[in-house]
Design goal:
The complex is a heterodimer. By secondary structure, chain A is of the alpha+beta class. Chain A contains 34 helices and 30 strands. The chains are: A alpha+beta, B alpha+beta.
Chain lengths: 1296, 148
């Protein structure tokens, strides 16, 4: 436990406990909250009702106040009323322009009305033709009203001017009334805003309530005008006890799960810290795997972070794929899973590299050679399975998603696409790292079991090719292009070799990983781009097949169903809708019902006609069907039975068109007939599910195939001949290719693909056949993408990788700052940045300039086109119209619809400020386009009589240009002609997108080239400086054999030569110094030897002299004296012998016996000699990782024993000795500490000097010998000591 | 042993992201859809929708299914996405009952439609469900799933 506490960093411990505590807390709060709701339900209900009422009233008030403020600003604090009071046209024009400038955005409408309610000036779309019923009669100076107009319900607020001669009415849409919702229709909903704010279902009834479905438990809040009049109702279903309790549970469950999820991560770290010390490398790998995936699965089961983050990242409609535990059920889940995968595989690789795991040496595994070979084959086969899995994963990223990876209209991909690219990046990284593991294993086996001259990677490649052949045989047809695994393998080997180079440079722990990451990122880009392209191409082919299949399908069932459902909708909605107030009921009623039918959503050319109980036409709305067509179908319809679908074929330009119709009477609840309805639908062969009506009237969603960047053409063969085609280069009537007959004979195959070059373009055709008397074959042709599109797509993928590389760069920079305490940017990097910036700035300027020029040209082109189109239409009309009366009566919708196809342009005619007729009446009838002439156009064309005026208008989110021209006859203004570019907006958008794509691709390519050149130049320029730096480092380490070759004759070359000279001088000085030192050392040694030898010689001489004297004097005790003298002489001889041995040990040339040994074992053995010492406590703390090094075991042991003995001797009264080891990069640090007397500072300098000793009888060579031994091993020995506290020796040794 | 362990870990990773047609999937028995008539498919759909269980009929989803859930999603989705979209939809509302009331089993585009009754936030609501089939690779698959 103590060890656990000591090992775990505090933040981890605290993190774990805090998270668990929070989880318990949130759970408790949820429980208490639920109890509180149940016990205090009545009060809560009441409070909730009050809050809702307050919120609704406040929200409505805010909208009203905003409009009032705007209206007041114009009415009382601007020149608009003055301008309108003026008589001159110029002042009126100014008033219009000012009014236009006051418009906050295109959503708003500003009308200036006189006291009778007539509109005298306006800006924005029309709401109503008169405010007669709303202008207050009383002296009140403001009013609020809700009006229905077209698709929306509007909130209007009016304020009187100072003189009360005008009212300024500001309006904005409050609610979209119809389910028609696409980018051309402003989707605004007050009910949805309130629903989001109050988190409950809200619906609004404005002006009438009779058709609102009210349940018993429904509550409402009144919306009132200034006079207290009710102008609307906001309905809501109050919370029930259950629903509120559920909401509370859900809310707190999110927090609880969040805390548990974060706690899970800390728990994983805790378990890892506990478990990693026990067991082998393999146990640690299993533990790491279990923990990583345990946390991942735990997060999924706790629905974290999907319930917290939500949004597009976790939307199944963007991406969803099945896997266990839902680990890939959305983009967000895939991101987390691929992150876990990448982390897991990298951890495996990191451990294997760090532990230097390898297969046993060849002499030990000789008998297992065949097994190892099979193992290699097996590993490579498994790797190919990984590649297969990788390709399948990419397949799901494409096929199971609705993302447009290569949307031509955007340069920078949006967030969901970027998220998927990141997932692909992580997956590719995982594959590459896995390959590193595989190559490590393969290399180990190949190197250890086979000898030869071939590089290992060549042998590996040969084996890989054989295994690939086996795999192709097993798994055909392949799920990936054949070149892909070969490319992957090649990149893997390149990365492997690079990583080995980096490793051998002995960077610190973990640093080598940082340095190889950029190579992985680049490798990922190289691998993932072609795989993505390949899968996108496959998907396009699948979509083409689906499209062809749809075209072949007989239409009866589906279109019949569409009609029948449409009729059902009309039955249900007619009684409701017919009671709503509508400005123009004649078209609005039919449109209101049509917009709710299935045929409108599917975008078919269709029509709905309503009749009253007397059979009189009540209302009509039609899209894409002329009056003539409608009449033909209606005649046939009413001849037949009601509620029966009638079908007829018509031959039209471009193919055949089938017309469907159904009619029925409508009855009220008592069975009385209240009217009848007829629905018609026309669909030609080409567009079966999504008809020919323009995008404007089609709801969002639906088949997006047509929005592919490829051009698509459709053709149909019948009876062996081409019936129709939209493909340039094919012609009607051409014979079917011969091989098709053979294809039709193969009933199992439905689709055939063929490539064909037609002129400069390459096409991929898919032929689809159907059995039948007509022998129909449909061909969908996809134009192949040219190089520019491929570059554009490649650049977009590269952008994502560049961002990842940038993020990595920032992290790496931050790490370096943390380590070095100051930013370090190399000279080469500075050069690259400088060149890059110098290249990028002009590119950006050029790009901006080009964009401006392109947009101006596009605008000018649109202006010219519109102007010439207007002239053309004007000419045509004036040629056909005789006089003014003929113009007003004859230029109607049919007239416009008839001449528009001939001229190839759609147009509208305005009489004064109102729409007279149009070639696309449904767009005005449906109020998508405004039937009122814009105020600024009225001012410029009608009042100022400009011959051409261009206005930028917007409908929904789309902006488009409209050209206006006055129509004169006999110098009398008949009306205003308008041609919007909206109908060609799609082509304009596509053209712009294409231009952007190509320009962006070109610039990105140019920038890439600049960057590459910068790197090459920077490398070349900085190389001499880097070599100088490296050489200076070598000199600093003591290596004076460095010599650089000057590569140039400039200043750098001179610097190199000077450096060489300096090094030579240093070398010479060092040699001289060494010689002097050696001489001094010898002198010292000789002095010491002489001194040491003299010591024992003196007593020897004295003894011999004493003996001689004793024998000379014939002393009685001369025998005893002889014994004593001989004893003395022998002792002194022993001393001399010892002295000689010590000096010999010190001076000897090492004849060491090197062996590979384990440092910690050696330390344990040394400690074992002293364990029995009484009074001394030994503590050891060794690093987790065993430390191996090559050294003379005996010598190293003597070093440790020497130091330990010194420590023991310094603690005569007992104490503690601690021995620790830890790793610092590629070095092992051994510390031996004692609590002895310590070494006084004045003698610390001399401790390592030979012959210095504080002990009697010591030679003082122990530490000197130890230091020499350590230094010979490339290490260092040092110490710190404090008197009274103890001494710590630190030995640093490099290890393997 | 160690090599096998590494290989095993690697293999597991392969299968983690091997979606359709994985090595394991290949060994699983493939449902013989050809033998299920149109009626059988509609029965599976009916059963699945009434219990809010998409897996009951997800095996019959075509490679591209047109899904239209009123007010929410409208578009073509892959079989996997369709499964997820419908699963999410049924999770949000609690189906009470569902029966196909009309069938068109003949022809090349059979369809069925019925009323789904569910409870949402304590309130009983209903929507119309339309399902149509199409032939794909000689098998009947669900090609359209609309909720109005």
């Amino acid at each position: 436990m103590a060890s656990f506490q000591a090992d775990l960093p505090s933040p981890i411990k605290w993190g774990f406990f805090v998270c668990m505590a929070l989880a318990v807390l949130f759970f408790g709060i949820a429980f208490l909250e639920k109890e509180r709701i149940e016990s205090d339900w009545e009060n809560i209900k009441e409070e909730s009702t009050e809050e809702i009422e307050f919120a609704v009233t406040r929200a409505f008030r805010q909208k009203v106040d905003e409009l009032l403020e705007l209206a007041e600003k114009i009415a009382r604090h601007s020149d608009v009323p003055d301008g309108l009071r003026g008589q001159a046209e110029r002042t009126a024009v100014n008033a219009f322009e000012q009014l236009r400038r006051h418009l906050p955005d295109e959503e708003f409408t500003l009308d200036v009305v006189d006291p009778r309610g007539s509109i005298v000036a306006w800006a924005g779309r029309s709401i109503t033709s008169t405010y007669e019923n709303f202008v207050p009669r009383s002296p009140r100076d403001s009013f609020v009203v809700i009006l229905q107009s077209g698709l929306h319900t509007f909130l209007s607020a009016g304020v009187a001017s100072a003189g009360k001669d005008f009212y300024v009415v500001a309006s904005r849409p409050l609610e979209l009334q119809y389910p028609l919702s696409n980018r051309f229709v402003n989707r605004v909903s007050f009910a949805e805003e309130l629903s989001a704010e109050l988190n409950m279902e809200i619906w609004i009834a404005l002006n009438r309530t009779s058709h609102v479905h009210i349940r018993e438990e429904t509550r409402y809040v009144l919306l009132r005008g200034f006079d207290g009049r009710t102008i609307g109702y906001v309905f809501y279903l109050p919370e029930t006890l259950n629903s509120l309790a559920q909401k509370s549970d859900l809310r707190w469950a999110v927090w609880t799960n969040g805390a548990l999820s974060v706690g899970l991560v800390f728990l994983g770290i805790v378990l890892w810290t506990l478990g990693r010390k026990t067991g082998s490398l393999w146990w640690r790998l299993i533990l790491a795997s279990a923990l990583i995936w345990g946390v991942r699965v735990g997060w999924r089961l706790l629905a974290f972070p999907s319930t917290v983050v939500g949004g597009e990242l976790f939307d199944a409609t963007l991406y969803a794929s099945p896997f266990y535990f839902g680990l890939t059920s959305s983009m967000g889940e895939v991101f987390l899973s691929t992150l876990a995968l990448a982390f897991h595989i990298t951890a495996i690789w990191y451990f294997l590299v760090k532990e230097k795991w390898e297969v046993a040496r060849s002499e030990e595994s000789a008998g297992k050679k065949p097994l190892l070979v099979i193992g290699v084959f097996g590993i490579l086969l498994f790797f190919l399975w990984s590649v297969r899995g990788f390709a399948e994963a990419f397949r799901t990223f494409v096929f199971d998603s609705t993302l447009q990876y290569h949307d031509p209209s955007v340069i920078v991909p949006d967030l969901p696409v970027v998220a998927m690219h990141v997932c692909m990046f992580l997956l590719t990284i995982s594959l590459l790292v896995e390959l590193q593991v595989v190559l490590r294993l393969v290399k180990n086996v190949l190197v250890k079991t086979f000898s030869g001259n071939l590089p290992w990677w060549m042998s590996a490649a040969v084996v890989f090719v054989i295994v690939l052949a086996i795999f192709v045989w097993i798994d055909a047809p392949l799920h990936f292009p054949l070149y892909f695994p070969v490319l992957t393998f090649a990149i893997g080997i390149a990365i492997y070799e690079w990583a080995e180079t980096v490793l051998h440079r002995s960077f610190g722990r973990g640093q080598w990983l940082w340095r190889v990451v950029p190579v992985f990122i680049i490798g990922s880009f190289v691998l993932s781009s072609p795989m993505l392209d390949s899968k996108l191409h496959d998907k396009e082919r699948q979509q083409a097949e689906l499209y062809a299949e749809n075209l072949l399908r007989p239409v009866d069932s589906w279109l019949s169903y569409v009609l029948v459902e449409g009729l059902r909708t009309v039955w249900n909605q007619f009684p409701v809708v017919s009671l709503e107030p509508m400005a123009d009921k004649k078209t609005s009623l039919a449109f209101s019902l049509w917009a709710q039918t299935l045929m409108s959503r599917e975008g078919y050319n269709s029509a709905l006609v309503l009749y009253d109980e007397l059979g009189q036409e009540l209302s009509r709305f039609a899209v894409g069907m002329t009056t003539f067509e409608q009449r033909e179908i209606l005649i046939r319809l009413f001849d037949g039975e009601e509620e029966v679908v009638h079908v007829s074929d018509r031959l039209v330009v471009g193919g055949t068109a089938q017309s469907y119709g159904i009619w029925s009477t409508m009855r009220n609840q008592s069975g009385r007939i209240i009217g009848s309805a007829a629905l018609m639908l026309s669909a030609n062969q080409r567009a079966i599910f999504h008809g020919q009506s323009s995008d404007i009237l089609r709801a969002e969603g639906g088949l997006t195939f047509e929005s592919s960047i490829r051009d698509i053409a459709v053709s149909e063969f019948q009876h062996g001949r081409l019936l129709y085609t939209t493909l340039d280069g094919w012609y009607r009537g051409m014979m079917v290719p011969d091989w098709i007959d053979g294809g039709i004979a193969e009933p199992a195959r439905r689709f055939f693909w063929r490539n064909e070059r037609i002129g400069p373009k390459e096409y991929e055709h898919v032929y689809a056949f159907v059995d039948g008397p007509q022998r129909r074959a449909v061909v969908v042709s996809l134009q192949s993408l040219d190089l520019r599109w491929h570059i554009f797509n490649l650049v977009k993928v590269f952008l994502v990788h560049a961002v990842i590389l940038g993020v990595y760069g920032v992290l790496w920079f931050g790490m370096r700052m943390r380590v070095h305490q100051r930013p370090t940017i190399g000279f080469r990097e500075k050069l690259v940045s400088a060149f890059g910036v110098l290249g990028l700035i002009p590119l950006l300027m050029l790009g901006y300039y080009n964009k401006q020029v392109a947009e101006e040209r596009a605008d000018e082109s649109v202006r010219k086109t519109l102007s010439s189109d207007l002239d053309l239409v004007e000419q045509r009309i004036l040629n056909l119209v005789m006089d003014e009366e003929d113009f007003y009566r004859g230029v109607n919708n049919d007239f416009c619809e008839a001449i528009a196809p001939e001229l190839g342009v759609d147009f509208a005619v305005f009489r004064w400020s109102s729409l007279q007729s149009s070639s696309k009446p449904e767009l005005y009838q449906s109020a998508i386009l405004d039937s009122r002439l814009p105020g600024s156009v009225f001012a410029n064309v009608v009042l100022q009589q400009k011959n051409f005026y261009l206005e930028t208008e917007s409908v929904g989110q789309v902006q488009y240009a409209v050209g206006y021209k006055p129509l004169y006859m006999h110098e009398r203004l008949l009306g205003v002609l308008s041609i919007p570019a909206l109908y060609r907006q799609k082509e304009i958008d596509e053209e712009l997108a294409q231009r952007n794509a190509f320009v962006f691709g070109s610039y990105a390519f140019a920038f890439g080239l600049i960057l590459l050149t910068s790197i090459v130049l920077a490398n070349r320029l900085s190389r001499p400086l880097r070599e100088l730096t490296s050489a200076a480092g070598e000199v600093g380490k003591g290596n004076l054999d460095v010599e650089l070759k000057p590569l140039s004759s400039d200043e750098i070359g001179e610097l190199t030569k000077t450096f060489n000279t300096m090094v030579q001088e240093l070398k010479r000085s060092r040699e001289e110094l060494k010689r002097a030192e050696r001489e001094t050392a010898w002198k010292e040694m000789a002095k010491q030897v002489a001194h040491e030898i003299r010591n024992p010689l003196t007593p020897m001489r004295l003894s011999v002299q004493h003996l001689r004297q004793a024998f000379k004097d014939r002393v009685r005790s001369r025998e005893a004296i002889l014994q004593e003298v001989t004893k003395t002489i022998i002792e002194q001889i022993d001393t001399l012998t010892r002295i000689a041995a010590e000096f010999s040990n010190f001076a000897r040339m090492p004849e060491r016996k090197f062996e590979r040994l384990e440092l910690q074992s050696l330390l344990q053995e040394s400690l074992a000699l002293f364990r029995d010492m009484r009074g001394i406590e030994f503590r050891t703390k060794f690093s987790d990782t065993p430390v191996h090094l090559v050294a003379d075991g005996d010598e190293l042991r003597r070093v440790f024993i020497n130091i330990l003995r010194n420590s023991v001797q310094a603690m005569k009264k007992g104490g503690k000795i601690s021995v620790e080891t830890h790793l610092n990069g590629r070095q092992c640090v051994v510390t031996i500490s004692d609590t002895g007397a310590g070494i006084p500072p004045e003698i610390q300098q001399k401790v390592f000097e030979p012959n210095f000793s504080t002990k009697t009888g010591g030679m003082g060579l122990g530490l000197a010998i130890s230091q020499k031994a350590i230094q010979d091993l490339g290490g260092t020995i040092s110490f710190t000591s404090e008197v009274g506290k103890g001494t710590t020796f630190e030995i640093v040794l490099p290890y393997e | 042993m160690k090599i096998l362990l590494i290989a095993g870990i690697t293999f597991l990773h392969v299968e983690l992201l091997s979606q359709a047609n994985s090595f394991l999937d290949r060994k699983k028995p493939v449902p013989i859809v050809q033998e299920q008539g149109v009626k059988k498919i509609f029965e599976s759909v009916e059963k699945g929708v009434s219990s809010g269980s998409v897996p009951s009929f997800s095996g019959y989803l075509g490679p591209q299914v047109h899904v239209n859930i009123a007010g929410q999603n409208d578009g073509y989705f892959s079989a996997n996405q369709t499964r997820a979209v419908l699963q999410n939809y049924f999770l949000a509302l609690k189906p009470v009952s569902f029966i196909f009331s009309r069938f068109q089993e003949k022809g090349e585009n059979p369809y069925a439609t019925g009323r789904l009754v569910y409870v949402l936030k304590g309130n009983r609501e209903s929507v119309q469900v339309y399902v149509s089939l199409a032939l794909h690779d000689s098998k009947w698959v669900i090609s359209q799933f609309n909720v109005y």
